[in-house]
Amino acid sequence: MAGTSTGHETDTVTAARSDARAQSGRVADAMPYLPASGTPFAPPGVDTDLLVWAETVAAGGYTHKVLARGSRIRLEDVTGEACAHVLLYNALEPWERLNVADTMKIPWQAYPGTGHPLLSGDGRVLATIVADDSGRHDALCGTSTAAAARAKYGDPAPQGPSPSGRELFVLAAAKHGLTPRDLPPSISFFKGVRVRGDGGLEFTGSAGPARAVELVAELPLIMLIANVPHPIDPRPGYVSGLLRVHAWRSAPTGPGDPYWDAAPETHRAYLNTTDYAGARGL
After folding, report:
1. CA distance 154 to 146
2. pTM over cut 0.90
């Protein structure tokens, strides 16, 4: 936030109130935009009246949101240095959560991209990747831990200069009554990893700035995002960049959509999902 106050500007309650009110209208590089329709970075072609979430997340920052079934979520790597580590939960029953093993196993694909379903361990689709011009994502490595961030960068605390993804997820999860035990491995967007022939992992980095990926929520979701360096990024410094997040009202995947019948396994997962949602009147 531009500007801070010291000394006589806040030395009484009245002065502090006046100073706080004077901050109205100031902006920062990273901040939520309220109302969401007022975002200065509206996604192309989207009616801003449909927006329910608009935010720019700082490097080393985190965010979280509860989203309705059918919401479309756009993540944008502004500078080419963001890495969006994402966790998804069924907002109705948060014990149902992202399962990255099933997310790779059910569609027979380890590398997420357009059309890839993000599955829970209950055989249902939490979200579907419906657009992607990056192609640099990872479902193998999860996010950084406090121990790994401490060893590489120094201070891994959320309020420190090099927070770990795990520590940020702990904070975000707590806002929804979830504990560290409720944090499964996450999926990462905008930093790629490939498996080499010898079984080792190769970091393929970013596809560049202004790349975006879009998801559709197939169930009501709790979405947690930590924007921190990828855990196997070989660069010694804590390199991260701005992440832009928008979400708007749309529709879930249904019969006739290209992903519904893409494969027998995913077809069954979508059927499981619509059965669950229909029984709850969603």
Report:
1. 10
2. yes
